[in-house]
What we know:
By secondary structure, the chain is mostly helical. Helices cover 68% and strands 1% of the residues. It has a domain at 162-212. It has a two-stranded antiparallel sheet. A hairpin with a 6-residue loop joins strand 1 and strand 2 (356-357). The N and C termini lie far apart (110 Å).
Amino acid sequence: MEFEPAWILLGLPLVFMLGWGASRLDLRQLRQQNRDAPKAYFKGLNFLLNEQQDKAIDAFIEAVQNDPDTSELHFALGNLFRRRGEYDRAVRVHEHLLSRGDLSGADRDRAQHALALDYLKAGLLDRAEDALARLEGTAFESEARLARLAIFERSRDWPQAADVARRMHSAGQGDFSARQAHYLCEQALHEHAAGNTAGATALLQQALAAAPQAARARIELARMAQQAGDSAQALATLKALRAEAPGALPLAATLLTEIARASGRETEVLELLTGHYGEAPSLDVLDAIVALSSGTGESRMWYLRHLEREPSLVAAAKWLAGERLEHEQFHPQIQAALDAAARPLTRYRCAACGFEARQHFWHCPGCQAWDSYPAKRVEEL
């Protein structure tokens, strides 16, 4: 049978019509998908703006199903799950993103950061630390290092925290010298408790070198010297404290009293304390002065001098405790009422979160801030 060219001429219009019909069908389907995806997306956005998170999540899931390759929808959905506390679902969304081979480098880093946040919010600190470590050298490096620093502080892994703080300080991501000093002090206290006084002293010297203006290392060095029976070294260290960080001297007022009595240098220490009180009145320094001048007839007069300078319920209650009243039989009840009223005024208060405590903290147990407690009582603020 011979091939007839005429059949080609007759078949060309038919092939053209079939191709045209198929393209029109694909275009209609594509237009329908494009209409459905934005419609679901904007519906989800509207629910989100109206704080209807459940409906927003349903709408975004619908949008993702219509267009599974859209990474932005995945990020929005993962963030919504995390905000709702559904951390397992947020992890699955971000792990799905990371498993995609067509994801750009920037989006991959973004997904890794989002996954680390999921683990952090869920309290899975080990997984969070591992996920954050993968962000070294990315645009999220600074945020990741700060988050790792917080993890190490919460777990009291001071060597690791010191390493991260050192790298951030060297990279110009902030001044972390004071934090490094605190980490060294924490390690020193651990070594001292274990009986390694020499190691503890060496760590405190490192802390002093890292942050010469930081008060904690000097106070701890003085305390260890006093416990070792070296009152002269302890006093010299606290004299340096007054020169370098005078605002922190009230924190060492009780220790100065112990040093003075143990070494017989009451007069020298009293002069140091009265000199400081004249420059910066303080309730703790006032108590130390009263304790060291007891028996001289002048001790309790210091409370009256303090009251002349500024009103103080704490000082008034302490002065009244040693007085005889006209109706002395009622003195215990009055004194108890005054002491109860003054007690909250003797607390320390965190300047960052307002958490109050009877003792001074270098690291706030409420908000985890460092050096947020002033060396003053609530009444003095």
